[in-house]
Amino acid sequence: MSTRPDTLDLSLAPPAAAASHPPLAGGLILATLGAIAFSGKAIIVKLAYRHGVDAVTLIMYRMLFALPLFLAMAWWATYRQGGGRKPPLSGRDWLGVLGLGVSGYYLASFLDFAGLAYISASLERLILYLNPTLVLLLGRVLYAKPITLRQLGGMAVSYCGVLMVFGHEIHLQGEQAAWGTLLVFLSAVSYAIYLVYSGEMVRRVGSIRLVGLATSVACLCCLLQFVLLRPMSAALVAPEVLWLSVLNATLCTAVPVLIVMMAIERIGASLTAQTGMVGPMSTILMGVLILGEPFTVWVAAGTVLVIAGIFVFTRSARLRA
Known about the structure:
The chain is built from 12 helices and 2 strands; from the N terminus they run E-E-H-H-H-H-H-H-H-H-H-H-H-H. The two termini are about 20 Å apart. The chain has one domain (about 5-320). Strand 1 and strand 2 form a beta hairpin. By secondary structure, the protein is mainly alpha-helical. The chain has helices spanning about 25-50, 55-80, 90-115, 120-130, 130-145, 150-175, 175-205, 205-230, 240-265, 270-275, 280-290, 295-320, and strands spanning about 5, 5-10. The model is unreliable at about 5-20 (pLDDT under 50).
């Protein structure tokens, strides 16, 4: 399993023995809470932008507060998980951790934060929700993996939904919406690259250990980026930015990672992924209630198309498996 600071790759999670974990309701509640918590990231970022902070500084603070949590995760997975110390990583493994941390967490997170300065939280969440389709397309390009007609149909419906919401936003905001959409889409591509190449390392290193180490690398990259691109005076931000960054690092990053792990243990990765479909809806609802973003027929129709398309796409993938 992998966690970008706003989503999970449930396809890499170890299979759960559903029969040995009967409390279905508890698992569904955990999966729902995890999806909602992850979705809150975009809302917090948009709120922070109202206080005059830029993407470089904002992601620096988010990663600064998240770094101790990720280091603790890596330490626990190395020395405590499974009752014994894991073997040290080889040089090849460390190179893999470095590459995955840069592509899957640093670039993906920074591009996402930068894009949110130009587009609504609703559109951002819908774009990121296309991630499984990007993984499949990369698998096709890199490994010649087949794509079924049902999967193509689901992809087409989902992308039509995103284009519908994008067309509405570009009509309202002009080329800024196009630039923000491109940045968030590149964020999704960067994370999809991580997922494609992380499978072997997950099996060799372990999912929690890999997540802890790779995200720690990303945190250090974000801190170094701030030191290189901004004067230290840029660290003087409004107190609201600091509190929002703490919430982002904990409530929208570390906490949902643990919650979703617990959900997978109880109800399995497949059902947890299906429950995660509440994520786009919760983002849109919070965007309307907290940010005052408009909820139009275009947003509603586009969201329905994206969720329906991804449902068909993922269901086809599970049936094929």
